[in-house]
What we know:
Layout: H1 15-55, H2 60-107, H3 113-128, H4 144-156, H5 166-263
Helix pairs in contact: 1-5, 2-3, 2-5, 3-4, 4-5
Amino acid sequence: MLIGTFSSYQPLFDFGAAFARTALIAARPNFELQFFRAQDAILDNLDKEINNINDAINTKGATALLDVQISRLQNDLAVINDFKARTDAKAGRVSDTLGNLAELITLAAPGTVTEFDAKLVETIALMRTTRAPVYERYGVQDRLRGAKNDGLAQLEALVHNNFATQADIDNATAIMAAIQTDYLASQSIVDGNAKIAFTLQRNASTTIGELTRQVSNIKTTAISEATGKVKEKQQYYGQLLTMISLSFEASQAFTTYITESVVLPQEIEPGSVLNLFS
């Protein structure tokens, strides 16, 4: 062996460099596998936390009183609706009955006996089928029940003798006029009750709408707060994954730099001063 040749000896295969390169190449796949597992675990945990947040949404306590009020008002509104329907129907039938009575008065004559009898039958049927409850929860007592019963009794007992005399005509028209008077008195009350029914219906519907809006706002606020918590969790775990990824990239860059600078053989450019010592 010649003196001075030992320092220039280079091994045929640099195991350290090869190992370093292999370690660098394997680092990223290994990290990505571990990162995927960590990410999967974090997402599972996030799902559990989101479910816990959603399960914790409970507005029953905050809306309990409102729900009771709404339920009661809805029950009241159903009764009011029925009352309004009966009152509206009653107002229409009272108006029709008054119209029939007016026609009967004009038909009370010898030449229109047939028409009078037909209208009389129609009027009796109309009055019989007019609903007049003894009691109504709302409104004012309209006294129609008494007017109906008295009017029917008079019409069913009416004997006009084909209006042979003026007395027969006067008797029939007097009966119609008396029934008209009672029905007109009831009509004004029925019309007033119809207005009351409308006002009650409108007020109940408005109040139910307002209370329902309050319940909706409470639920919306609760959901919004829960959504905010979910977003905070998502941001937290997203930042955590980002930090892990950035830490690896920084570590990998540093390792690569050290490996290339110290472990791996350095390439010396031709003409460099370092060639003098090789």
